[in-house]
Amino acid sequence: MNQTENQEKILLEVKNLKMYFPVLGGVFKRKVADVKAIDGISFNLKEGETLGLVGESGCGKSTTGKCLINLYTPTSGQILFNSKLTGEVPVVAVKEGSTSVKVPAFSIPTPLKVDIAQLNNNQMRPFRSEIQMIFQDPYASLNPRMTVKDIILEPMSIHEPDLSHAQKEEKVALLMEKVGLSAEQALRYPHEFSGGQRQRIGIARALATNPRLVIADEPVSALDVSIQAQVINLMQDLQKEFGLTYIFIAHDLAVVEHISDRIAVMYLGNIVEIAESEELFQNPKHPYTRALLSAIPRPDPVNKREKRIVLEGDVPTPLNKPSGCGFRTRCPIARPECSKGVPETIEIKPGHLVACPYHDSYNKN
């Protein structure tokens, strides 16, 4: 397979994914409502690319990441992962282009795609070597009772039991070197490191199982700006060296623009626009995307920029979403028809999708 074909290979397909959290009330604690954290999102992820996932706090970005790695069991939808694992592993899989098919335990018939949404914890365990996560808080995501060496060794002990102790220690030293730490620091504890160094330890831990997909949940939001740039550059270097695929979750559009090949914009549990990074920044179509981009500070006072778009009102609660388009209560081009149904995603040009039938009527002035 040449490099072009490899880049076009689909690693992950998400189809109509929903994640509802029940709200219990009354004396008998019965379900009285649902918090619709994710309300039907779909996207593909190519092997070797970086997909940025952006939006305001509470829009469902982190919940999406946790569903993709099976920390949450989705309410409905499919998460089809193109796994390379073979052999005797208990899974539930789906055939290419067909409905879900239960596969007998302890076998992976190739070339089937695994539906992560249908796996329980035991069934998901083998696939965690291929999908890893970098968490937002470098202070809370590391066990304070474990040394750095033990933190990085733990996933190897689970997913690579055939490695000898000497091989594992050699790999720990190599990973620490790759993320900019010295092997002499392996016996230290997390509290002896700065926030940026802790996040590097988290990255080394994520790489310990040789993953193909890494989900980065706001990995630099808790770091100083200068340290953010170092971590972002490190992640890009590691992606090239190890052939990684990233889903980069963030609310800082400037950071996402720097690292992402494509960007998906989320609002209130839905994806409202997806496009290549340059296309999205140069030609945003959805009113919400325009508002987000207009809020980015520009250091150049000479170049003209669009007038700041200030959205009125607060983000509605996912407990009681507006009917139809979830953005219509704050949208400057909303029409009465927007309340009648969830807008379909339109492909306005190859690879540029927008969930707004009236995007062309937006007045830039």
- Number of helices, counting only DSSP H or I runs of 4 residues or more: 10
Range of helix content: 25-40%
Nearest-angstrom radius of gyration? 22 Å
Q: Give unreliable regions as ranges.
A: 1-7, 90-98, 100-106
Mean pLDDT, as a whole number? 85
Strand order of the largest sheet: 8-9-10-3-11-12-14-13
General form: globular
Overall number of strands = 14
Q: N- to C-terminal separation?
A: 49 Å
The main β sheet shows up as: 8 strands, mixed
Helix/strand-derived category reads alpha/beta
SSE ordering: HEEEHEEEEHEHHHEHEHEEHHEE
As a percent range, the share of strand residues is 15-25%
Mind sketching the topology for me?
Elements (H helix, E strand, L loop, with lengths): L2 H6 L1 E16 L4 E17 L3 E5 L6 H8 L7 E6 L11 E2 L5 E2 L11 E3 L5 H4 L6 E4 L13 H12 L5 H14 L16 H13 L5 E5 L7 H18 L2 E5 L3 H7 L2 E6 L2 E7 H6 L4 H8 L51 E4 L2 E3 L11
Parallel strand pairs: 3-10, 3-11, 8-9, 9-10
Antiparallel strand pairs: 1-2, 1-4, 4-7, 5-6, 5-7, 11-12, 12-14, 13-14
Helix pairs in contact: 4-5, 4-6, 5-6, 6-7
What does this protein structure show overall?
The chain is of the alpha/beta class and 365 residues long. Helix content is 26%, strand content 23%. It contains 10 helices and 14 strands. The strands form 2 sheets. The chain has an 8-stranded mixed beta sheet, sandwiched between helices. The longest helix has 18 residues, at 225-242. The model is unreliable at 1-7, 90-98 and 100-106 (pLDDT under 50).
